[in-house]
Amino acid sequence: MKFTKSTVAASLLILSGWVHAQAPSAMQVRSWAAACANCHGTNGQAQPGMESLAGVNKDDIVKKMLDFKAGRKPATIMHQLAKGYSDDQIQAIAAYFAAQKK
Amino acid sequence: MQRRHFLQTGSALGAMGLISGCATMGGKGPKVVVIGGGYAGATAAKYIRMWSDYGIQVTLVEPNPTFISCPISNLVIGGSKTLADITTPYDNLVKRHGVQMVQDRVTSIDADKRVVKLAGGTELTYDRLIVSPGVDFMWDSLPGMTKPGAQDKVLHAWKAGAQTLALRKQLEAMPDGGVFAMSIPLAPYRCPPGPYERACQVAEYFSKAKPKSKVLILDANDDVTSKGPLFKKAWAERYKGIVEYRNKHNVTDVDVATNTLKFEFNDDLKASVLNVIPNMRAGDIAVNAGLATANKRWCDVDFLTFESKVAKNVHVLGDSIQIAPAMPKSGHMANQHGKTCAAAVVALLTGQQVNTQPIYNNTCYSFVSSEDVVHVASVHAYDADKKTMLTVPGSGGVSSAANELEGRYALAWARNIWADTLA
């Protein structure tokens, strides 16, 4: 059997899909993060009057979100939105924003 | 910069054998046509360009020369904002994102041949079509409103623009001691809290400029459809003696000559200024193309892709869709539709897997005065068993009370969503 470039690529895709069956894909995380852009700007680069998330330390975003979620940090709206996301989802979204250009 | 991105993606698409199918489109990569440059359509256009690394061609067809926001437009009616404040040009979609803008109106869609015809005679071919025409009004349920000139005299002001300004002028011309009567259709309609916010805006204007005047809300619904306790508190406390709310008042006709509303069950009512918000359905373009499958009124879609349930390669977004449970017809939600659809369209046109776990939120701010605001928020996630979007249990809620801090957030929200949609 001759292994062409495309069959190797396809095998790799299948393999990586299997290995990461439980983890959300990069595309999925990008879309989750994009849902925050309505208030926090495209890719987390906010317009004046709202907090930018682009390039912010991942752990800082995660801590804030978990504090909102647990009711430890007072908020107007974020405590209600944070409760819509699992801790794993918050970790993934925070990592996405941390990797964006400020 | 964009050219480099295009070349990279172009070669990737070519290697995957996807370019060949689009040879008739000019060989520059897959082609998407978006009908309607509102919160959903403009967002989809921008994000398809961004997320395809500028490899997918996007043409946006929009009859209006600029984007005028429905959110915040009630403040123009109240007098604290101008039309210029809520207007954004389409330039950045073209300059920054390479979207091709066509200022025209769509006359027909041929989903078999994948061709969109425009009033100006142009024909646009597509690999995937996004239909995002917002709402149109069911005038046939209000016979008096179909008479010549009726719609120029009795306004809806439910599409921001000329009617917004015209309603403001009617309020300014109204003598003190007059009655402003606004009718609200049965849900679902665009922007559930919008009419109640408008009542507050007009009441604030009256309280300052015409204190003997009244705001009469005639709601076809059983009760206030959104943020009820917060709006009722504002009417009872801030606008005591100005605002009166009447439920179960379903308007069935309008006598435009005498400024009189006629109801299904209640007595006729004459007012100084009428504001009739009519029943709504999916935009004409979607209805005429046979996409309105739910009661011939709204368009059923697959919530993973926003593809129509009846037309292949055709996606429907925004206020035109048959909503999922507890999903409002809002600008914020329309923007979320745009991004979810953009990701799916890019995936479908480049041979990648479509996301299977959409999660997005809705945030809706209402101004109960020119400064104080109340919100409602919710988080919606895809349910694979029910194949629809459902609110996440325990998430979401409303403001505890109207406050000025959220007034500032509401304006920041507007700046951000306008930029996310258009810049």
CATH A-level architecture of the largest domain in chain B: 3-Layer(bba) Sandwich
- Helical amount of chain B: 25-40%
Which homologous superfamily in CATH is the superfamily of the largest domain in chain B? Answer: FAD/NAD(P)-binding domain
- The separation of the N and C termini of chain B measures 17 Å
- Provide the CATH topology of chain A: Cytochrome Bc1 Complex, Chain D, domain 2
Q: What's the rounded overall pLDDT mean of chain A?
A: 87
Q: Number of DSSP strands of chain A?
A: 0
According to CATH, the homologous superfamily of chain A is Cytochrome c-like domain
Number of helices of chain B: 11
Q: Main interface pair? A: A-B, 29 and 47 residues
CATH-derived topology of the largest domain in chain B: FAD/NAD(P)-binding domain
| Domain unit count of chain B | 2
If strands are numbered along the chain, what order do they take across the biggest sheet of chain B? 5-2-1-9-19
| Low-confidence segments of chain A | 1-21
Number of strands of chain B: 23
SSE topology:
The complex is a heterodimer of chains A (102) and B (423).
Chain A: H1 5-19, H2 26-34, H3 37-40, H4 58-70, H5 78-82, H6 87-98
Helix pairs in contact in A: 2-6, 4-6
Chain B: H1 2-15, E1 31-35, H2 39-51, E2 57-61, E3 66-68, H3 73-78, E4 87-89, H4 91-95, E5 100-102, E6 106-110, E7 115-118, E8 123-125, E9 128-131, E10 135-137, H5 150-153, H6 162-173, E11 179-184, H7 194-209, E12 214-219, H8 228-237, E13 243-246, E14 251-255, E15 260-263, E16 269-270, E17 273-276, E18 280-282, H9 284-288, E19 314-316, H10 331-349, E20 359-367, E21 373-383, E22 388-391, E23 397-398, H11 404-422
Parallel strand pairs in B: 1-2, 1-9, 2-5, 9-19, 11-12, 11-17, 12-13
Antiparallel strand pairs in B: 3-4, 6-7, 7-8, 10-18, 14-15, 15-16, 20-21, 21-22, 21-23
Helix pairs in contact in B: 2-10, 2-11
